[in-house]
């Protein structure tokens, strides 16, 4: 597997806690992760790992998320997201089951569901409802930092999970989470948002890499980042472009650059007709 020189894990630990980075300004990601650690600790008190594991093992086989990224044309992962730290409320009058049906009709190849509650307004119930309402493979999009969340994702019906390199400075933990996803039959979408994170991403030999064009520290968007990084990622590794995608012209540019899939949330969630909006992004004929 190709290695990428010059990169490193950007996040570091200090003596005051796993992510209490007193030596620099706290970012959106720092705050989200601090809440996530507390949230997971609380969830472990409510349901044991063993109980979740039994639920996960009893489920039918996962839907083929990775295969859905490899169509003749660029694939769409349509996202359900109520709000975000940078944009505030996006749409509160839209249920995950309704979104799932609309996205499927609009030609999406897969669906992403935000399950982070504090900053994005999501839940595992959203994921379960979305998956039950469609035939699409479904990604649990969250800040996964503990193996408990992996088995929780599968028990909730997820076919794929998101692993964010910037949130996982420990290579051992990163490897463990990727291995756990594979053990439960799920695809790991390994996300980077900086070219220096490429070498870290390839510690787990990913089959699917996401390039988030939104900087997770500042939440600013660089709409050219995915095109620039496509040539740095081996051609046999499928790539997803994330954030800042709002037009068919952008989608065409990404497809020409060899990007396999796009992940789009806010553009679809804000649309009056999300099904039509999905079809138009893909350049499909709309009646």
Stretches where pLDDT is under 50 for at least 5 consecutive residues are 1-24
- What average pLDDT do the residues reach? 90
Name of the CATH architecture:
Alpha-Beta Barrel
The CATH topology annotation reads as TIM Barrel
- The strand order across the widest sheet is 1-4-5-6-7-8-9-10
Helical percent range?
Answer: 25-40%
**Number of continuous helical runs:** 13
Could you characterize what this model shows?
It is built from 13 helices and ten strands. By secondary structure, it is α/β, with parallel strands linked by helices. β5 (138-141), α7 (147-155) and β6 (160-164) form a beta-alpha-beta unit. It has one domain: Alpha-Beta Barrel (TIM Barrel), CATH 3.20.20. α2 (49-58) packs parallel to α7 (147-155), α4 packs parallel to α13 and α7 (147-155) runs parallel beside α8.
Give the structure's gist in a few sentences.
With 287 residues, this protein is α/β, with parallel strands linked by helices.
Question: Would you spell out the secondary-structure blueprint of this structure?
Answer:
Layout: H1 28-46, H2 49-58, H3 65-68, E1 75-80, E2 83-84, E3 88-89, H4 96-105, E4 110-114, H5 117-120, H6 124-132, E5 138-141, H7 147-155, E6 160-164, H8 171-183, E7 187-192, H9 198-201, E8 208-212, H10 225-230, E9 238-242, H11 248-256, E10 261-264, H12 266-270, H13 274-281
Helix pairs in contact: 2-7, 4-6, 4-13, 7-8
